[in-house]
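In the previous chapter we treated chains in isolation. Here, by contrast, the input contains two separate entities that must be folded as one system, with a combined length of 267 residues.
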Amino acid sequence: MPFTIATWNINSVRLRIGLVEHFLRTHAPDVLCLQETKCPNELFPREAFEALGYGHVAIHGQKGYHGVATISKLPFEDIVRQDFCAIGDARHLSVRLKAGDTPIRIHNLYVPAGGDEPDPDINVKFRHKLDFLEEMRAMRAGGEEGVSAILVGDLNIAPFEEDVWSHKQLLKVVSHTPVETDGLLRVIEEGGWDDLVRRAIPRPQKLYTWWSYRSKDWTAGDRGRRLDHIWASPDLGGKLVSASVLREARSWERPSDHVPVMAAIDL
DNA sequence: ATGGTAGTGTGACTA
């Protein structure tokens, strides 16, 4: 049995707990990493996960905004919440667990969206995003001796031309500007990460994980972006069985604007 | 060029 992991920006875990339950019943990953839970820790719906066999729930939430959670069938050996940019946002959570005999550090990240104007001098949100990216450079796939690593989350950047519906039309749109895409690719390269989803579904195939709410019909023109990612240390990359994007979830009732992304690794 | 929708929680913010 391979080890399976999924990441999903759920845009309110309480509002969409029914969709999450449906996803866990039908796909049953060993670990599910959620972003944008928008839920204070004391109100997190732990019981729903426990009832489905996910007895291990690590949360890093705050009221109203952001928030990440890692839901697991396997127990955690360590939990870390990193305060990126030291402003108290709940945007990171990492756990260490053992999958079979393999210790794995799993980082769950929600990178700032960055606002509308891609100029750090006039847009503090974009400045924050670039600062966050800079801080991510310290995240190394080989950071812990003898521990494999996975980094997942809504990274809010579509790094390759084939990760957006129109490279040309999005070059000046936050999420696909050169300073962001170069920055993210540098984090991958310097950190020694392996982009598992692009390993399984290589370019030039187009691939998206997010479609805006601001359109009557999300399928019209298929104007998506690949904002959600699964990276791993090279030892795990070599054992990748499959990776996939659950596109159909965008058509579920009252959907998130992001869909689940999954990977299976043969340990 | 603009505005379009969604969530939290009833304001204005974030995305």
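Chain A has one domain: 3-265. The longest strand of chain A covers residues 102-110. Compare these points with the single-chain example from earlier in the chapter.
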